[in-house]
Design goal:
alpha/beta, eight-stranded mixed beta sheet, 15 helices, 8 strands, binds 1,4-dihydronicotinamide adenine dinucleotide, binds ligand L7SNNMKT
C-alpha cells in the first residue's frame, strides 16, 4: 500500500523508514529540498544498520522504495494514509489538511503526529473532518513501536484504517478513546518529567541520579511489563491484593470496582500474551527477568 509522509523531519522520516522497511510504497513531501530529506533518511537507515536492526541490502531496498518530492499532489495521490509531521503549529496543520483534501478528497486518512493537539481542533474547517485523527508517535519514531491513535469524531473506517496501516508498518497502535491532555502516555511522560524537574529544583537529587533512578527502577520495569502488569507481578495474588500488602485496605475499600476492573484486565492481558512472552504469572515473570538481563547487559550491570 502507499503511505505518504507530509513533513519529513525527525518524526516523519523515521516513520517513513518503518513503512519502507516493511515493503510499502512510501512518499515523503517536505518544503525542504528532497536531498535534505534523503540525507535524514540515510542517517536513520545507517543508525539502524549499525545497531543491527536491518542489514545493508534491506536498507538499500527501503531507500529505493521511497520517493522524495516537493509536489504535494504527487506525494498524497493514491495514499491509504497520510501521516502529517509538520511543525507543531495548529494553523499550519489545518492548512496542510485543506491542501491535501482539496487534492485527493476523502480518499486518505490523515493522521497527525501532534504531541498534544486535540483531533477535534485539528479537524476544524476541514473538507472531510471525519478523515482526520491523531496518530501520535514517540521519538525515536524509527524504533519506538507506539502510536497513540485518537479521533473520537473520526469515522470508524478512519480509525480502523489507521490501526491497520500502523500495524502494517510494524508499529504498535493503541486507541485513546477520548480527547485527554497528553493522550494516553504523553500525559504520564510529562508528569514524570515535571516530577524529575521538581526533584532537582528542590535539591532532592542530581539530574544524573533522577535519570538513573528511573532507568534502573520503574523505567526498566515499564519497558518490559508496562505499569499495571508490573505492579500486579509484585504482589502474590495480583492487583486484588495490593491494598492488603501495602496497608491501603481501608483506602482501597472505596475503589473496589476499579481495582476489580484493573485486576480482571491484568488477568486478561496475561492470558492473551503469546506463549513465548509468558501467558501465566510465572511465565511473564520469567520473560521479564530474561528481558531485564539483556537490557542490564547493555548497561554493563551484568
Ligand atoms: N520530535 C519529537 O520528539 C516528537 C514530535 N512529535 C510531533 O511531530 C511533529 C513533527 O515534529 P518533528 O518531526 O520533531 O519536527 P521537525 O522540525 O524535525 O520536522 C518538521 C518538518 O516539517 C517540514 N515542514 C515545515 N513546514 C512544512 C510544510 N508547510 N509542509 C510540509 N513540511 C513542512 C520541515 O521542513 C521539517 O522537515 C510535530 O507536531 C511534533 O509535535 C511527536 C512525537 C515526538
Ligand atoms: O516524547 C515524545 O517522543 C513524544 O511524546 C512527543 O510528543 C514529544 O517529544 C513531546 O513529549 C515533547 O513535549
Amino acid at each position: 500500500m502507499k503511505i505518504a509522509f507530509v513533513g519529513a523531519g525527525m518524526i516523519g522520516a523515521g516513520l517513513a523508514v518503518n513503512a519502507a522497511l516493511k515493503g510499502h510504497q512510501v512518499s515523503l513531501y517536505d518544503v525542504a529540498p528532497p536531498e535534505t530529506v534523503q540525507g535524514t533518511v540515510r542517517g536513520i537507515l545507517d543508525s539502524l544498520t549499525e545497531a543491527g536492526a536491518v542489514d545493508a541490502p534491506a536498507a538499500s531496498a527501503a531507500l529505493a522504495g521511497m520517493s522524495f518530492t516537493q509536489d504535494l499532489a504527487q506525494a498524497v495521490t493514491g495514499a491509504r494514509l497520510v501521516q502529517e509531521c509538520v511543525p507543531e503549529r495548529l494553523e499550519l496543520k489545518q492548512a496542510t489538511y485543506r491542501s491535501i483534501q482539496e487534492l485527493v478528497g476523502a480518499e486518505p486518512v490523515i493522521a497527525s503526529s501532534t504531541s498534544g493537539m486535540f483531533p477535534s481542533a485539528l479537524a476544524e474547517g476541514a473538507l472531510y473532518p471525519e478523515r482526520i485523527l491523531v496518530g501520535h508517535p514517540y521519538n525515536p519514531s524509527y524504533l519506538l513501536p507506539l502510536v497513540e491513535v485518537c479521533g473520537p469524531r473520526a469515522s470508524q473506517d478512519s480509525i480502523d484504517t489507521a490501526m491497520e496501516v500502523y500495524r502494517a508498518m510494524g508499529k504498535e497502535p493503541v486507541l485513546c478513546r477520548k480527547e485527554v491532555h497528553g493522550f494516553l502516555v504523553n500525559k504520564l511522560s510529562w508528569a514524570v518529567m515535571d516530577g524529575a524537574i521538581q526533584a532537582v529544583a528542590d535539591g532532592v537529587c542530581s539530574v544524573e541520579d533522577i535519570d538513573k533512578a528511573i532507568m534502573f527502577g520503574p523505567g526498566l520495569r515499564m519497558a518490559v511489563t508496562g505499569q499495571l502488569l508490573t505492579m500486579s507481578l509484585g504482589v502474590p495474588g495480583g492487583f486484588r491484593m495490593m491494598g492488603k500488602k501495602y496497608g491501603n485496605e481501608e483506602e482501597d475499600s472505596g475503589k473496589t470496582a476499579v481495582i476489580q476492573r484493573i485486576a480482571d484486565g491484568v488477568d486478561e492481558e496475561i492470558a492473551c500474551r503469546p506463549a513465548e512472552f509468558g501467558n501465566t504469572v510465572e511465565g511473564v515473570s520469567k520473560f521479564r527477568d530474561r528481558a531485564f538481563v539483556e537490557i542490564l547487559k547493555l548497561h554493563h550491570k551484568i
